[in-house]
Amino acid sequence: MSRFDEKMVQYSKEMERLNIPLQRDLLASIVKGLGPSIYKTDAECVSSSDEKELETVKNNFLIKKLLLKDGERIDTAITNAVKTMGKSNRNKYRAIFYYLLVKELKQEYKFEKI
Predict the structure, then answer these.
(1) What is the CA radius of gyration of the chain?
(2) d(CA 89, CA 64)
């Protein structure tokens, strides 16, 4: 099994544990988009207690990559992703966090295979 496949299994199990419905193709596209960062312990997770980290997610992923406008809508999506994954959950995997943001903000079409 490749390292990518191992990560997919890990994230799928975590989503099942958190009762997050899995759309495997979407998760795979998001994981591929994250590149080698998923293999780095520090970069693999989102620290929701660090406001600077959440601002980076907002600016680099939601605004720059997904081309969304800053505003209450994306702030609410970030807050909801933190709640869904559990505020005290220390393993808020970036791939799952981004998956939740994409689903809530209805941006799945940006990850479809062409």
Answers:
(1) 13
(2) 27
Residue with tokens 């406001």: 51
CA distance 92 to 10: 12
Q: In the structure encoding, which two tokens stand for residue 72, read together?
A: 């209450």
pTM, entire model: 0.95
Q: Which long-range contacts (CB under 8 A, 24 or more apart) does 59-64 make?
A: 61/98, 61/101, 62/101, 62/105
Q: Quote the CA–CA distance of 91 and 70 in Å, as a whole number.
A: 26
Q: CA geometry: angle at 35 spanning 46 and 100, to 5°?
A: 45
List the pLDDT tens digit at each of the 114 positions of the chain: 899 999 999 999 999 999 999 999 999 999 999 999 999 988 999 999 999 999 999 999 999 999 999 999 999 999 999 999 998 888 899 999 999 999 999 999 999 864
- Please tell me the chain's helix, strand, coil percentages from 3-state DSSP, rounded to the nearest 5: 70, 0, 30
C-alpha dihedral, 74 to 112 to 21 to 63, nearest 10°: -10
